[in-house]
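Appendix C reproduces, verbatim, an entry submitted by the partner laboratory led by Prof. M.T., so that reviewers can inspect both the input and the predicted structure.
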Amino acid sequence: MQRQWNVYLSGEIHTGWRDEIEAGCKAAGLPVTFSAPVTDHDASDDCGVAILGPEPDKYWHDHKGAMVNAMRTRTLIGDSDIVVVRFGEKYRQWNAAFDAGYAAALGKPMIVMHGADHQHALKEVDAAALAVAETPDQIVRLLAYAINGELRR
């Protein structure tokens, strides 16, 4: 029986990079189960007050949401075999940076993905990663190699 790998896909939620990685891994026949944070931006922002009640102060509104989201994020990162963290072009992903630090603190193998223009800003995050990629295809190739020792060209 082949081992099933758990890969957590953290970071930017405004593009289809997760779908590209999942499709590439499926096409390659990789035994991977993916998980991710809640990618519905409004649900992620408002989950705390929607479940626990309204907050007049935006700080406490956000704080409640962050704590509720952390239940999912911490559990899924903790259960993962590999963490992929994507930093997008348009928005600053403070949550992605936090996830990268959390994964590093847990000793999780981490792949970071971002464009060349973020190299300087993310140098400390990159230094904690085992690989830094720029494309979803590179992520699929890294996973194929890590899982099967298969070097796809």
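The mean pLDDT is 95. Additional entries are available on request from the coordinating office.
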